[in-house]
Design brief:
Layout: E1 2-11, E2 28-29, E3 32-33, H1 34-44, E4 47-54, H2 58-64, E5 70-73, H3 80-85, E6 96-101, H4 109-119, E7 123-128, E8 138-142, E9 145-150, H5 157-160, E10 165-173, H6 174-182, H7 198-204, E11 209-213, H8 226-246, E12 250-251, E13 257-265, E14 270-271, E15 275-283, E16 288-289, E17 294-300, E18 305-306, E19 311-317, E20 322-323, E21 327-329, E22 333-335, E23 340-348, E24 350-352, E25 357-365, E26 367-369, E27 374-375, E28 380-382, E29 392-394, E30 399-400, E31 405-407, E32 410-412, E33 417-418, E34 423-424, E35 433-434
Parallel strand pairs: 1-4, 1-6, 4-5, 7-11, 12-14, 13-15, 14-16, 15-17, 16-18, 17-19, 18-20, 19-21, 19-22, 20-23, 21-23, 22-24, 23-25, 24-26, 25-27, 26-29, 27-30, 28-31, 29-32, 30-33, 31-34, 33-35
Antiparallel strand pairs: 2-3, 6-10, 7-10, 8-9
Bound molecules: uridine-diphosphate-N-acetylglucosamine and calcium ion.
Calcium ion binds next to loops.
């Protein structure tokens, strides 16, 4: 543990320009609330404490962000300096404090490590030189030394012309912090207690400010509206796609790839366009994913081919299986090697043995199916009686005729065959043919009723 490092994350603001009921920091990048991402990055530095300042929508933040940190309430948003002050009880005098922002989601561990390194026991300030500095605090230098930050709203023309800006992220020595925060005034254009005024106070105290410039602007970019959220999401997705390409995954188009979680992969994995991966996904060697698939919390073993428009959630697929197009694998579908699941087949809480097939228009729910069994088109396991779910057990090498309704609880033993259109309500013994449908009736010489001819006199 980094015993003298403490981290404060500011996340009390409302985010008016998001036009949302959700507090700003809960909006997601890569499927994860922004503030949770920042907490995880903070955690990677192994600090002695993390304090998150919350205010607007704090109940929702506490409900949705399950992280073990000091949650500190700021009841009135009186400025960034005031926000950090709320955390003082958690900041022992012998340490130092790194300030992060809940709405700056893509800050990374190595940038922060460089900042901490540069700061030493003095002040470290993360800076940027963006294309357009409008709205941001400008960095004022004197003889090359950083001496102050001036907010845009308080800046004169000469100061506004400065392109070097304050990202907001900084490191401060705790021994000085309380005194500096207590001497802040809100005598400025916004009537707020500015954290940025600490830079001038440090200079007055003879403490140096060590600037570190971010490697790329997006790392310190804040989100104030949905446009900026979408821009950062795309950058985040591009970075992930690039990393996967470099690791040998074939992405047919990296611009049409979304990963909201983690993707573990083998060799020669091919992913076609417009796929979305969520949660924890594992793809074995030679797995191919067709276009437009959504895959969430799933493991797909080597050699399996998934055709377009398939949907996976909470399931496992074995080796060399063939899934889709238009397949739906729901939670706890567990398919063994070489299983075939075809179009418009839904599988939920069902185990299927090696080489079994359900190729068309079928619902398999709460079932245990052996190996080398064929499920005919249009089969339904009738697992729900309106109150309870019941189990269907189907053995190895069973042949289920098309359009069979299998009314659970029921079991169909190894080698049995059900005739097409059967409604199976009783157990079927091994190696039998079971017909459970009305017998066909033939009426010879049948004359079809005819319409009367209205024009006849
Ligand atoms: C701040 C900096 C500015 C910098 C910019 C970078 C100050 C005074 N200015 O400006 O120099 O260029 O960030 O994006 O610090 N917050 C609280 N409580 C408060 C006020 C703010 O938690 O009382 C949180 C907000 O939710 C937000 C962050 O602090 O996440 C920044 O506050 P904001 O008011 O947006 O500061 P800026 O005007 O953007
Ligand atoms: Ca801001």
């Amino acid at each position: 543990m980094n015993t003298n490092l403490h981290i404060v994350i500011l996340a009390a603001g409302k985010g008016t320009r998001m036009y949302s009921k959700l507090p700003k920091v809960l909006h997601q990048i890569g499927g994860q609330p922004m503030v949770e991402r920042v907490i995880d990055t903070a955690q990677s530095l192994n600090p002695a404490s993390i304090s998150v300042i919350i205010g607007h929508g704090k109940e929702l933040v506490l409900e949705q962000v399950k992280r073990n940190v000091n949650w500190v309430e700021q009841t009135e948003q009186l400025g960034t300096g005031h926000a950090v002050k709320m955390a003082l009880p958690h900041l022992p005098a012998d340490g130092r404090t790194l300030v992060l922002y809940g709405d700056v989601p893509l800050i990374d561990q190595s940038t922060l490590e460089a900042l901490l390194e540069a700061a030493g026991n003095e002040v470290g300030l993360l800076t940027d030189v963006p294309e357009d500095p409008t709205g941001l605090g400008r960095i004022i230098r004197k003889d090359g030394k950083v001496v102050a930050i001036v907010e845009e709203k308080d800046a004169n023309a000469e100061q506004k012309a400065v392109r070097e800006i304050n990202t907001g992220i900084l490191v401060l020595p705790n021994a000085k912090l309380e005194g500096w925060l207590n001497s802040l005034s809100s005598n400025n254009a916004q009537g707020e207690y500015y954290l940025t005024d600490l830079i001038a106070l440090a200079n007055a105290d003879g403490i140096n400010v060590h600037p570190v410039q971010v490697a790329a602007s997006y790392m310190a970019a804040g989100v104030n509206n949905k446009l900026q959220l979408a821009e950062l999401e795309r950058i985040f997705q591009n970075n992930q796609a690039e990393a996967l390409l470099k690791a040998g995954v074939t992405l047919r188009d990296p611009a049409r790839f979304d990963l909201r979680g983690s993707l573990q992969h083998g060799q020669d994995v091919v992913i076609d366009v417009n796929c979305v991966f969520e949660g924890t996904v594992v793809l074995g060697d030679n797995v191919q994913i067709g276009a437009n698939c959504v895959i969430k919390n799933a493991t797909i073993a080597e050699g399996t081919v998934v055709q377009p428009f398939s949907h996976f959630e909470g399931c496992e697929v074995g080796k060399n299986a063939a899934i889709g197009p238009f397949a739906r694998l729901r939670p706890n579908a567990r398919l063994s090697d070489e299983v075939h699941i075809g179009n418009f087949v839904e599988v939920k809480n069902t185990v299927m043995g090696v080489g079994s097939k359900a190729n068309h228009l079928t619902y398999l729910g709460d079932a245990e199916i052996g190996s080398k069994t064929n499920i005919g088109a249009g089969t339904i396991t009738c697992n729900y009686d309106g109150a309870n779910k019941h189990k269907t057990v189907i053995g190895d090498n069973v042949f289920i005729g098309s359009g069979s309704m299998i009314v659970a609880p029921v079991s169909i033993s190894r080698g049995a065959t059900t005739g097409a259109g059967s409604v199976i309500t009783k157990d079927c013994p091994e190696d039998t043919l079971v017909l459970a449908r009305a017998r066909q009736t033939i009426i010879e010489g049948w004359i079809r009723p005819k319409k009367e001819d209205k024009n006849k006199a």
